Description:
With 98 residues, this protein is mainly alpha-helical. 80% of the residues lie in helices and 0% in strands. It is elongated, with a radius of gyration of 16 Å.
Amino acid sequence: MKDERIEQAKNKIKSEITEMIFFIVMISLLIKIIFLDLDFKDCITEYIIIVIIPVYQLIRMHMLKISIYQEKKQSLKNIIIIMAILIVTSALMIYKNY
């Protein structure tokens, strides 16, 4: 039988890895658009990952009836950061197409 503390530590590590991957993909998308001057079709994989991860987390947390964030201020801050990055990225993609 596994110790509950070990399981919680494993889950925390997996969660941190998911966050790291999410932010690395976000940085990759921004670098491709800003510095490498790539089109949206060249960055579609990153864009899909950036959209799918938060949507999956929200759906899964709703299904399990648990909150993803402990503090409302942290939750609002994370949502604002993600939305700002998506808006800037989308604006850059639109601007590059004209």
